[in-house]
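step=encode ok
step=design start
structure_in=
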């Protein structure tokens, strides 16, 4: 089989935002590779736009902690610059695409119905926002939201949102254990269930299950959450508490509603 067509579209930094004195920029890489020769061959398109904190005088430890967490969560790497990490991820992903699918496609390419199986894409776009939380000892939180959209064969693509919250003074990634007292899980699950039932306009758990929520699992506090000025937004991606066709579910809990289980 001849040479694969490879197109490198763009790589470099873009955009900027500042949170409590920490400047954030984006590392960007975009690439498309064809699975075989010919304009009608399927391809894999990859786009990454990943935010990272910029080092300035005196903030190296904070920036390193934030960037290591972002790299590990989104790219499975640590210790590289963010641009190096996104470039490496894109190169490896497209290489794996060709390595794993080229031979199979040669067997299937005469079947037009199977063409779509090989049209892969993988996209990660990110943004950063700031929250000033009086209820959390006046912490200023930098929240990184990553939106993933990918198709790797199967019945449909997958869309997910992954969230990381950082204490802008220390660079520490905040967990639920940093926000709530030990033993918070039961009460917080109750709050989330109440909120979900209100959101779906139902009165009982059976009615909620009839709408395909929590059909095979109990309510739980998602570790995927957004810190806001006045509370938390819990993110549940498809399949976590409801089937794919329900999409992403977001549940808001204010700090005042959770007052009894908040750390003081």
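sequence_out=
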């Amino acid at each position: 089989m001849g040479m694969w067509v490879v197109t490198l579209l763009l790589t470099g930094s873009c955009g900027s935002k500042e949170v409590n004195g920490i400047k954030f920029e984006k590392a960007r890489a975009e690439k498309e590779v064809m699975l075989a020769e010919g304009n009608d061959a399927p391809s894999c398109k990859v786009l990454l736009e990943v935010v990272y904190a910029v080092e300035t005088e005196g903030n190296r430890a904070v920036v390193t902690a934030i960037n290591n967490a972002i790299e590990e969560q989104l790219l499975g790497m640590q210790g590289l610059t963010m641009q190096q990490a996104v470039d490496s991820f894109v190169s490896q992903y497209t290489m794996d695409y060709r390595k794993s699918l080229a031979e199979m496609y040669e067997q299937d390419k005469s079947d037009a119905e199977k063409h779509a199986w090989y049209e892969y894409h993988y996209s990660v776009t990110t943004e950063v926002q700031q929250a000033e939380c009086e209820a959390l000892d006046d912490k200023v939180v930098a929240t990184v939201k990553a939106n993933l959209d990918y198709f790797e064969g199967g019945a449909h693509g997958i869309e997910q949102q992954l969230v990381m919250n950082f204490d802008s003074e220390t660079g520490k990634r905040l967990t639920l254990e940093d926000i709530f007292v030990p033993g918070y899980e039961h009460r917080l699950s109750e709050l989330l269930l109440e909120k979900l039932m209100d959101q779906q306009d139902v009165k009982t758990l059976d009615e909620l299950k009839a709408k395909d929520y929590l059909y095979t699992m109990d309510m739980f506090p998602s570790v995927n959450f957004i810190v806001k000025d006045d509370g938390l937004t819990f993110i549940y991606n498809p399949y976590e508490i409801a089937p794919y066709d329900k999409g992403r579910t977001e549940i808001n809990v204010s700090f005042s509603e959770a007052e009894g289980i908040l750390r003081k």
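step=design ok
step=annotate ok -> The first helix runs from residue 60 to 75.
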